[in-house]
Amino acid sequence: MVKSKDTTTEAQILNAAKSIFQRKGMIGARMQEIADEAGINKAMLHYYYRSKQLLFEAVFKKAFLLLAPQLNEVMNSDDKICEKIKGFTHNYISFVIKHPYLPNFIIQELNRNPEFIQKLMTEKHFPSIDKFRNQVNEKVAEGILRPIKAEQLFINILALSIFPFIAKHLLKSIINTNETEYKQLLEERKTEVADFIINAIKI
Amino acid sequence: MVKSKDTTTEAQILNAAKSIFQRKGMIGARMQEIADEAGINKAMLHYYYRSKQLLFEAVFKKAFLLLAPQLNEVMNSDDKICEKIKGFTHNYISFVIKHPYLPNFIIQELNRNPEFIQKLMTEKHFPSIDKFRNQVNEKVAEGILRPIKAEQLFINILALSIFPFIAKHLLKSIINTNETEYKQLLEERKTEVADFIINAIKI
DNA sequence: GTCTATAGCCAGATAGAC
DNA sequence: GTCTATCTGGCTATAGAC
What is the DSSP secondary structure assignment for residue A144, as one 8-state letter? Predict the structure, then answer.
């Protein structure tokens, strides 16, 4: 029987590395920790990925390519604006509930190493908001939407979807909720965020 | 002549540490780097603050106590809700434009060490949204505001104010702007964010 | 391919002269 | 209080046996 793709040593390492890097970041992660998580020897990490830096880049790229296409898919679809907003916020929040460390990982590592984004921008699937921008400008000109810059609206959509995951611990304390209640709030946001945005922009 | 408070060695160290820790985080920062920034010897850091951990905690606490009272001041004032929102977003965004590393620093270090927030919660000035919550619930009951949970509204206000600073590099690339243009967008948000929120909640 | 042992480096911390 | 020199531990990376 051929080994399934996820049980090869190489894949086991990548999964373990993903888990550790996303929780601790590039600098905070320890190769020994990754090896332990994968249940194999530390030397094997170097055998397969040469260095910590290269292992990290493999993890980062994979994570980025998981988030980016979702941005594109919705932003550049042919849906109407309200449908886009509903679709995007619902899908994105659902996705991030399943992968809560992902956005913070991406944002944090891009802050640590802003030049890294240059490499990513050459990728085919790097997100763009061109279609979304045209749509918004058009509808604003027609008087169907309140005047707002497409860029600001885009920032708002992303902020409302992602921030509650990034600032989870701070927000939990300020609004004085426990873990269960906070998860409930996040669930509600799957629809709440779109309602909020649409009320904000419709005439 | 008595030395001004900011030129004592102790204060020089704290300022240098603030600058380095906020940019690199607790793990990324190097004691040597902080000493260089302060223009003094590495051994002095230990003479005044004993260890990296204690120096870090001094910086973190000072930073937190800079952000927290602003939250309280607006959220628990006697202003009407719309005034609160306008006042808070304008002041907070202005403040963060001047201290762009601050929110990310706080959020990042709280994620790394969630237990740390327990210590902070015992402080007098730890933010609470009690008054704001009552106000929102009241106005919603009266039918003056669209139905929304105060907690969700609070999260939205903070998200729209802070996220553009945290995700700066990512957002800059996606919306394809240079540094100057992005700063301009942030400037606009001093009023844009409040308009957006108020439109979203008013009937 | 997988392991053990270790080289080599770097950073926090301290000893001790001044 | 301030400095130089050094200790110590931890981490990445590799050499080499199996």
Answer: S
Cβ neighbours of B152 in A, within 8 Å: 185, 188-189, 192, 196
CATH fold of the domain at B1-50:
Arc Repressor Mutant, subunit A (1.10.10)
Chain B partners within 8 Å of A117 (Cβ): 169-170, 173
The CA distances from residue A146 to B147, B148, B197, in Å, are 21, 21, 13
**Residue type (1 letter), B180:** T
Interchain contact, A110 vs B71, CB within 8 Å: no
- Residues forming a β-bridge with B202: B145
Cite the residue boundaries of each domain of chain B with CATH code 1.10.10.60. Answer: 1-50
Instruction: Name which of B159, B153, B147 is nearest B81 in CA terms.
Output: B153
CATH code at A59-201: 1.10.357.10
What residue type is B158 in one-letter code? L
No. of H helices and E strands in chain A?
11, 0
Q: What is the pLDDT of residues A181-195, one digit of tens each?
A: 999 999 999 999 999
What's the pLDDT tens digit per position in B183-192? 999 999 999 9
